[in-house]
Amino acid sequence: MAEFDYFVVFAEMRTGSNFLEANINALEGLTCHGEAFNPAFISYPNREETLGVTRAERDADPHRLLGRIKAADGLNGFRFFNDHDPRVLDDVLADPRCAKIVLTRNPAESYVSRKIAESTGQWKLTNVKHARASDVTFDAAEFEAHVEALQAFQVRLLGGLQKTGQTAFYLAYEDLQDVEVMNGLARFLGSPARLESLDRSLKKQNPAPMADKVRNFDRMETALARLDRFNLNRTPNFEPRRGPVVPGHVAAADSPLVFMPVRGGPTEAVLDWLAGLDDAGREALQHDFTQKTLRQWKRARPGHRGFTVVRHPVARAHAAFCDKILSTAPGSYIEIRKILCQQFKLDLPKGDPDGGYTPQHHRAAFLGFLGFLKANLAGQTAIRVDPYWASQTAVLQGVAGFTLPDMILREDRLEDDLAVLAAQVGKSTMPTVVQPTDPHAAVLSEIYGRDIEVAAREVYARDYTGFGFDDYAA
Asked: Does the predicted TM-score (pTM) go above 0.85?
């Protein structure tokens, strides 16, 4: 017998509940019927009825619709906000046959997002080209009322669950980008269905930093000075969480060193150095680790060191563009290339570049690619955030999920940093790093300009701040 007869998503406006519903509905056997008990409409704006119950019938007896939701085929549910029909809340909250999902978001972010939606009239975004932007004014009294309503509702939910001995599946706004979390929700609901990828039809609407969205941001900071938990100055992060990618780690033939590559970086140069450190060929390097075998490797080598190398964001984005988008060679991303040409208007040659593809063409196409990356890393496109252009911060956070690197080296001083690393494991001599480590550096130097730097900083703000990158040295 199934554990639940129906489910409810307790959420609020601008918390990502539309995105959550879209992914719930993508799971076979699960159906979420929107805001079924919103006093202003039934389930969705302009909807006349839900499961055969009209809005008037629901308003007269909300339990009539609740009964239909319980009895519908599969497992059905709805979203419920703090201002929805209170007549069903106590019954739903006390019912152990109702699965509870609690979705929350930083109140400052949901408040500003709601103000922008009210200003622009855009409550959902399915195509980033149609995005409407607006900045808003922070009202301290209004925000205080907003927070009080949210807190009162959350306290009521928590008390109801505690008093009836129930638990809920808790989700933060940031968790919605993790397909494994969504599949964990499916498991919680008792569904055997699983998602291979997330529904990307809905796009992030306001991915800019808070300071760019609030006119009187300084006043907002002052008003909330005692509430630093809102972390207003952070750079928004909508990238999916990444795994440690242990099979990609490479260990030296004999020395106790393991390299944790960041794709799009100077990997080939580092692997040549690592092989030369023990006077071995590349074929002698150890790879294809699992978490188990890497642990065994570490236990057998006390004093081991793990390291990675980061590349300047401009150079890394350019390398990804040249190797994966501009090129049509095996290993390039032909389908993504087609989409970028169609949707983001990148003017690329039909095949590999020839004499007709000038530096001016290359510069314009690379700037277009950076524009795509800005939307892609903000979760505003249907295209995956590929490891070759994911932020290096996100990649290394994934690596840290299994083990932390002892050293994070920089490409622009790679030989000096590698010498320090080699000395730490007892090496007195080491091979020379072949320069240049970036085969696309000459082309990039020819097209680099301030507009490219500004565009890259908008895409990779976390990397610039976290790793201390200065402007690219062309």
From this structure: no
Question: Cβ distance 391 to 462 under 8 Å?
Answer: yes
Return phi, psi of residue 214, to 5°.
-115, 120
Domain 6-230 CATH assignment equals 3.40.50.11750: no
**What is the crossing angle of helices 267-277 and 414-424, to 10°?**
40
8 A C-beta contact, residue 303 and residue 296: no
Determine the Cα–Cα distance for residues 237 and 4; give it in Å rounded to an integer. Answer: 34
Confirm if 190 and 113 have CB atoms less than 8 A apart. no
Q: Is the peptide bond before 436 cis (omega within 30 degrees of 0)?
A: yes
Give the chain's residues under pLDDT 70. Answer: 1, 122-133, 200-207, 226-237
Token readout for 32 is: 């979420």
- The residue ranges of every structural domain in the chain are 6-230, 240-468
User: How far apart are alpha carbons 44 and 24 in whole angstroms?
Assistant: 16
Could you read off the pLDDT of 369-422 as tens digits, one per residue?
999 999 999 888 878 899 999 999 999 999 998 999 999 999 999 999 999 999
Beta-bridge mates of residue 55: none
CA distance 474 to 455: 16
